[in-house]
């Protein structure tokens, strides 16, 4: 049997995580997500995939320009770039597993992000770091906003016990399905890593790029526009 | 091209959003508990005799011993779909569920096929096979789908079918290839179904061949796309070096 087939067939009975098992055996089950809840998850995965793709290409662009000129920056950029690649791979996997449509503008995000990375790095390493600060500020805020909605708008999903009876006040451990819990954990982990990138960029003289204030504000605007667009198309 | 792809950007309610793992009831193709779907599902058995006609629904209401007034559950829907069109859409969704059941059966032949494109071919043929019992009535049903008023919902259902097929076949594309594959499968499916309508060969042998040829012609398109993209990245690096050298010279 092919790998694809094994994956398809095993998706019928997903194993629940240990926490749920501890209390109820593996018999806890969850009710439907509403249309709005599904639509939001769909948008979250699409926009985060596009965002991490963008981040990946920004570092690709910066690395292309800066790595040979400033050998001491090479490991710093490489480390952040590796993390972005991991973020991007993770959302790629989610996008195919959860059957989410990727952003149709994927080629544009690649070219645009690469362009931002290259052009800021060509101005200088301070401008590149200022660009990182701008991008990570917007992304960090964006992830926080997603987490807020995931925490507040998914409280009404019924939890059923092994007899199919609704559990009136489910324990914290089983209140959210592993699917939702792991998504929230993932986003908060990535958010923390983005904020680390922000700190790294500040440590590497981002603030000496004060004359480029206009540039960083422009980049923030571009990022917000791209988020708005990638959520939708 | 863009016009073709536009159909894949969901506007209305019919297109699937997000496939859940731990909330499986969110993924149902038809809700078996609703009264509408009970009536419509039962109507399907009358299609071989009466075609995609509202008479099937009336018959079904009689079979189920529901009062006549229950008709209004189906006729007073917000988007004003005709009974015939609802019957057609419901039939399509039930066939799509059947395809799902088929691939979830561990004994199905599907699981022994290793190649993604051969799996696509197999799934299209499997789905077309479900047309056989009503093939005589199908062209009227299809004409319902393509009237301008119904077209956007019909395209959504077509997209859902090709999305299912491409997903079951094991697609893992994360970029524009996602759209290319689904658009390709949709157009192959439509062409094959039209071919099938006039196919008189035994067991629709010619239709099956037609599907195989079309899918073979499509094979590798996703790959071509990615190669173009890699070529783009390669050239972008070259471009950076060029710009850099110009920059240095001031
Ligand atoms: Fe990231
Ligand atoms: Fe980052």
UniProtKB/TrEMBL annotation, chain A:
Cofactor(s) named in the record? Fe cation
Give the cofactor note: Binds 2 iron ions per subunit.
Q: How does it sit in the membrane?
A: Peripheral membrane protein
- Looking at the keywords, is Ligase present? no
Q: State the Gene Ontology BP annotations.
A: ubiquinone biosynthetic process
Q: What does this protein do?
A: Catalyzes the hydroxylation of 2-polyprenyl-3-methyl-6-methoxy-1,4-benzoquinol (DMQH2) during ubiquinone biosynthesis. Has also a structural role in the COQ enzyme complex, stabilizing other COQ polypeptides.
Family membership: Belongs to the COQ7 family.
Q: Extract the HAMAP family matched here.
A: COQ7
Indicate what this protein is called per its UniProt record.
Answer: 5-demethoxyubiquinone hydroxylase, mitochondrial
Q: Which organism is it from?
A: [Candida] railenensis
From TrEMBL, chain B:
UniProt main location, coarse? mitochondrion
Q: Name one GO molecular function term.
A: lipid binding
> What are the alphabetically sorted keywords of the record?
Lipid-binding, Mitochondrion, Transit peptide, Ubiquinone, Ubiquinone biosynthesis
A single GO BP: ubiquinone biosynthetic process
InterPro entries reported for this sequence: COQ9_C (IPR013718), Ubiq_biosynth_COQ9 (IPR012762)
According to its UniProt record, where is this protein located?
Mitochondrion
Entry GO CC: mitochondrial inner membrane
Keyword field contains Thylakoid: no
Q: Which domain of life is it from?
A: Eukaryota
* Functional pathway: Cofactor biosynthesis; ubiquinone biosynthesis
Pfam families, per database record: COQ9
COQ9 C-terminal domain location = 152-219
Q: What does this protein do?
A: Membrane-associated protein that warps the membrane surface to access and bind aromatic isoprenes with high specificity, including ubiquinone (CoQ) isoprene intermediates and presents them directly to Coq7, therefore facilitating the Coq7-mediated hydroxylase step. Participates in the biosynthesis of coenzyme Q, also named ubiquinone, an essential lipid-soluble electron transporter for aerobic cellular respiration.
Give the record's family classification: Belongs to the COQ9 family.
NCBIfam families assigned to the protein according to its UniProt record, in alphabetical order: diverge_rpsU
Q: What is this protein called?
A: Ubiquinone biosynthesis protein
Origin organism of this chain?
[Candida] railenensis
């Amino acid at each position: 049997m092919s790998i694809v087939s094994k994956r398809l067939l095993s998706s019928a009975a997903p194993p629940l995580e240990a926490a749920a098992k501890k209390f109820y055996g593996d018999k806890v089950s969850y009710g439907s997500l509403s249309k709005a809840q599904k639509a939001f998850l769909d948008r979250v995965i699409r926009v985060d995939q596009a965002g991490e793709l963008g981040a990946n290409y920004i570092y690709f662009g910066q690395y292309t320009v800066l790595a040979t000129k400033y050998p001491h920056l090479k490991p710093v950029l490489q480390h952040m770039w590796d993390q972005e690649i991991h973020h991007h791979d993770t959302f790629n996997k989610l996008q195919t597993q959860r059957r989410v449509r990727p952003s149709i503008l994927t080629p544009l995000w690649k070219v645009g992000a690469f362009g931002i990375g290259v052009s800021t790095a060509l101005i200088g390493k301070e401008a590149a770091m200022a660009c990182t600060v701008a991008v990570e500020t917007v992304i960090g805020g964006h992830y926080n906003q997603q987490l807020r909605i995931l925490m507040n708008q998914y409280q009404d999903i019924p939890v059923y016990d092994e007899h199919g009876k609704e559990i009136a006040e489910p324990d914290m451990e089983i209140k959210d399905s592993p699917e939702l819990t792991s998504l929230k954990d993932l986003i908060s982990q990535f958010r923390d890593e983005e904020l680390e990138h922000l700190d790294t960029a500040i440590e590497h003289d981002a603030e000496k790029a004060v004359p480029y204030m206009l540039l960083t504000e422009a980049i923030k605007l571009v990022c917000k526009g791209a988020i708005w667009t990638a959520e939708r198309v | 091209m863009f016009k073709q792809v536009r159909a894949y950007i969901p506007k209305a309610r019919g297109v699937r959003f997000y496939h859940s793992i731990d909330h499986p009831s969110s993924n149902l193709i038809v809700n078996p508990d609703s009264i509408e779907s009970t009536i419509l599902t039962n109507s399907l058995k009358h299609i071989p005799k009466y075609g995609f006609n509202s008479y099937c629904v009336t018959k079904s209401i009689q079979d189920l011993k529901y009062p006549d007034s229950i008709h209004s559950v189906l006729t007073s829907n917000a988007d004003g779909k005709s009974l015939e069109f609802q019957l057609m859409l419901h039939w399509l969704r039930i066939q799509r569920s059947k395809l799902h059941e088929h691939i979830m059966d561990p004994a199905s032949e599907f699981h022994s096929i290793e190649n993604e494109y051969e799996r696509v071919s197999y799934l299209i043929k499997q789905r077309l096979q479900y047309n056989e019992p009503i093939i005589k009535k199908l062209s009227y049903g299809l004409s319902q789908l393509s009237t301008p008023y119904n077209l956007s919902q019909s395209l959504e259902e077509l997209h859902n079918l090709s999305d299912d097929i491409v997903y079951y076949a094991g697609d893992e594309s994360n970029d524009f290839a996602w759209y290319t594959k689904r658009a390709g499968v949709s157009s192959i499916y439509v062409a094959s179904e039209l071919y099938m309508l006039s196919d008189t060969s035994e067991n629709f042998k010619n239709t099956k061949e037609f599907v195989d040829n079309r899918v073979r012609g499509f094979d590798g398109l996703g790959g071509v796309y990615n190669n173009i993209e890699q070529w783009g990245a390669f050239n972008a690096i070259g471009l950076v070096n060029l710009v850099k050298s110009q920059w240095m010279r001031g």
